Amino acid sequence: VVTDHLESKNYSISIDKIDEIIKSDYQRSHLSYAIYILNLEKQQSKYWYALDNESCPTILWSGKERYMWIDLNAGPVTWGPSTMGFGMVTESSVPYLSHHRLRPHPFYERKDGFDHVQALMMDLTSLIKRTVDFMITPSLDHFPV
Questions:
Q1: What is the distance between the alpha carbons of residues 39 and 133, in angstroms, rounded to a whole number?
Q2: How far apart, in whole angstroms, are the C-alpha atoms of residue 6 and residue 62?
Q3: In tens digits, what is the pLDDT along the chain, a chain of 145 residues?
């Protein structure tokens, strides 16, 4: 899917290409809801997903059916209102593997027992909870009266 763009510094991947694969798996699974967490092989270049060359970059997508996916190695991307507001996505909005050092390094070893794998799991848990709150059990405030 991405091999023809490896020479460039940054590149966009069509959402449709990945979503087609995930949608096919979702339909075979017969699940009510599904959240796919992608951990694709780390690329030399920074990449993200977009509908076309003019749309906002993203690392996650909600399918037309009841599934969504996030790529932990894509990005990071930033878009939305410049300071704050609804729809703002920043580097701290979603978990990125690049922010978590998953292998211990003796120089950076902390004495307080901080574990980067646990930190990643906390970030993923938070993302999944927000996704469930928004997509599966939305507040009644989101519905017109």
A1: 23
A2: 26
A3: 443 444 457 788 899 989 999 999 999 998 888 989 888 777 778 888 888 877 788 888 888 888 999 888 888 887 777 666 666 666 777 777 766 655 555 555 555 555 677 778 888 888 888 888 877 777 777 666 6
**125 Cα distance to chain centroid:** 13
Residue 51 near residue 64 (C-beta atoms within 8 A)? no
Pair type for strands 67-71 and 34-38:
parallel
Cα 23 to Cα 106: distance, rounded to the nearest angstrom: 42
Distance of CA 44 to the CA centre of its chain: 18
- d(CA 145, CA 141) in angstroms, rounded, equals 9
d(CA 116, CA 112) in angstroms, rounded, equals 12
Q: Alpha-carbon distance 19 to 51, whole Å?
A: 11
Tokens representing residue 110 in the block: 């902390």
Contact between 50 and 9 (Cβ < 8 Å): no
At residue 89, what are phi and psi to the nearest 5 degrees?
A: -120, 125
